[in-house]
């Protein structure tokens, strides 16, 4: 092989080596840039006034036999159901939670456990969609059920939280961006595109405890609705430039 030809082959080999080295170096630099990111967690919370009330009630009757206890319980439950209907509660908003009949005993030191009858009971969960009318509904149910009725809970809640959830999401994103921008500034960088966003949980509504009282100027029951938090929690990752 002559000297001139050898030099041409060597030059071509060196050229390919340089090009190959540059091609390998570029992805490595790009990968280094791509791994610069900031990930933040954030919450957005909106306070809303509950638009519905959940009523938990139970009718309970003691009779001499299982059959009589169940029959009397059904009669009391029918009266409560009629009062709810008259108060404007739709059939679909009245749900039976439980029906039970069982022997009831009285315990004394001298006689021990003595059967005193059979207790029948039926539990209801009622959704009152007109929250402002909740107190009147409670009074109507108590009047219909009399001493056979127990109110086990009156809880305001947010029936339709869609609008509040949208606002909570917007707040969550705003808070996340502010936090990420602060971190980027501390690192001498800027925020790039969003790599991903994950909503960590469904919107959370925190219900208050039972809120019911008699009005000071009358015997009418008043249900205080108060306010509740609708919260959205997210995680967002931004690339850093």
Automatic annotation (TrEMBL):
Pfam family, one: SIMPL
Gene3D superfamilies: Protein of unknown function (DUF541), domain 1, Protein of unknown function (DUF541), domain 2
InterPro entries (alphabetical): 26kDa_periplasmic_antigen, SIMPL/DUF541
GO biological process terms held by the UniProt record: DNA damage response
Protein name: Unannotated protein
